[in-house]
Amino acid sequence: MATNELPDRPNIIFILTDDLDAQSIAVMPQLKTRLTDQGTTFSDYFVNVSLCCPSRAAILRGQYSHNTEVLTNSPPTGGFEVFRATGKENSTVATWLQAAGYQTVLLGKYLNGYPAQDERTYVPLGWSEWYSPAGGNPYSNFNYRMNENGRLVSYGEQPQDYMTDVLARKANNFIRRTAASGVPFFMYLATYAPHGPATPAPRHQDAFAGVKAPHPPSFNEADVSDKPEHIRNRPLLEPREIEQIDQLYRKRLQSLLAVDDLIARLVATLEATGQLENTYIFFTSDNGFHLGQHRLPQGKTTAYEEDIRVPLIVRGPGVPAGRVLDHFAINVDFAPTFAELAGTTVPDFIDGRSLAPLLGSNPPPTDDWRQASLIEHWVQRSNSRSPKSDSGVLEPPDSPERRLAQQPTGIPEFAAVRTKDHLYVEHVTGERELYDLNNDPYELQSLHAIADPLLLNQLSSRLSELRRCASASCRAAESAPLKD
Predict the structure, then answer these.
(1) Which of 52, 53, 469, 474 is catalytic?
(2) Rounded to two decimals, what is the model's pTM?
(3) Domain count, the chain
(4) Mean pLDDT per 10-residue run, the chain (484 residues)?
(5) 143 falls within a domain
(6) Residue 155 contacts residue 142 (beta carbons within 8 Å)
(7) Would you call 474 a catalytic residue per the annotation?
(8) What burial class does residue 239 get, using C-beta atoms within 10 Å of its C-beta: 0-12 exposed, 13-18 middle, 19+ buried?
(9) Which range marks the domain in which residue 189 is found?
(10) Is residue 156 part of a domain?
């Protein structure tokens, strides 16, 4: 969409789910009817780091994680504390849009470790209104305290206290109030679903009875001799573990039904207030999630497709309905996209690129777009984590992979490059992986030991460029053609 084709100061709604894989949206009929069928789906949307806080920092800043310096979920290598202490919080998509005259609101999850214990009513720069948990157990969707514009409000165990529904009510109230004022708005709406423990709304707790997690060819992979040591050291999943995966899968689907209801209510309110035709709605997740693939129990943080490929659906003015695009998009693209849609500029530090040119009816050819995506992963360096963050917000247990990161079965640090045809991974251990995604979409056979050395060198060189890139050099390294 050319800049001169953009509507004047549209509203922007960004719906960010937590740990949602690309396949589970199939159980969300309202998402399909209200957004997918009315908008464009990005089939090749990836996250830079498959972990909550690094991904969210990348979204807010439009930078790869090696530039946000938020590498993990907690200090000293990540979390809210690092994002704030390094000054990154002072310039985000919220500050840019607020300066451009937008009413900005955050509803739901901000960054892991928010807020500091002695500043529970703290509201970051750039937000006109703020509704984010500041205590209790928000991951359970019950029994939490919310910082509501500097006032702490407690929610309990009643059905009306269910977090996703509370966020829906507050979002709709904000839309009605702001629509009446005539001021454009930017809404960042971040649910805790379907993150574990994936507590469903009471009305949905009996849904999907007997449903089991999908078993693609990579599920409980029989032959892992081609994989790095941390995978080779894993035994096959036991029946008990598979049953646990099935139980979590059902709860994840159940928890998504309230998110689906939220979408329906938002669209209905936009329509009732006359704002629907002037509002872009983005739906996505901070990262993907694996459930038994490659012998890995439930979790994230790998470079495999289940963890890095997540849903991205966009509805809005001029966005073709029912379309699927295979242009590469990354979570660093949201901030510059929102800025362009709002008619404002971005700082020079931006690594990502605006997706606005892809939202109209004549997107550029894929050959003229990004050719490679950088995937990164770091291991939490601190061993002093307690079950609670400094703020008293109860944090859920890390996935088994992160708890065991320092052990032979843990996931070591790595960097990877994802192209249309290949996934290439370099582990800190010196091990490598290479998958031909056209012929091996489930990543069952790594070709690193037998691949053409020229291909390996090309991918390794591109990865090296991306790992040290910043700003324009990131876009240049992503866009350079890859030789056949």
Answers:
(1) 52
(2) 0.95
(3) 1
(4) 72 99 98 99 98 98 98 96 97 99 98 92 98 97 98 98 99 97 97 98 98 98 97 97 98 99 99 98 99 97 98 98 98 99 97 98 96 96 50 60 46 97 98 98 98 97 98 98 81
(5) yes
(6) yes
(7) no
(8) exposed
(9) 8-370
(10) yes
